[in-house]
Design brief:
By secondary structure, this protein is mainly α. 71% of the residues lie in helices and 0% in strands. The chain is built from 3 helices and no strands. The mean pLDDT is 96.
């Protein structure tokens, strides 16, 4: 990790309590470590979403543009979801 920079942040009470509990639990060395790990996880999640959008979503969109008959109307989607819900129950 590179050079450190001191920041002052404000968190809602619930989040501040969580950060303090995690740091106090011994799972993390400090409050800074909790925040650093949280930011690494956020960055990884954002990268995964970006990758999913670029690969699967774009591919599905291009498939649909090439053959619009593969698509479903909103009413068809609702009917299919209702059918799946009924079969699950």
């Amino acid at each position: 990790m590179g050079a450190s920079q001191k920041l002052s942040i404000s968190l809602p009470a619930e989040q501040a309590d969580l950060v303090q509990r995690l740091a106090s639990s011994g799972r993390y060395a400090s409050v800074s470590a909790v925040i650093s790990d949280s930011l690494r996880v956020l960055e990884a999640r954002d990268a995964a979403v970006e990758q999913w959008l670029r690969t699967e979503v774009v591919a599905a969109y291009e498939d649909l543009r090439a053959d619009p008959s593969q698509g479903m109307s909103v009413d068809q989607v609702r009917a299919e979801l209702a059918r799946r819900r009924r079969s699950r129950d």
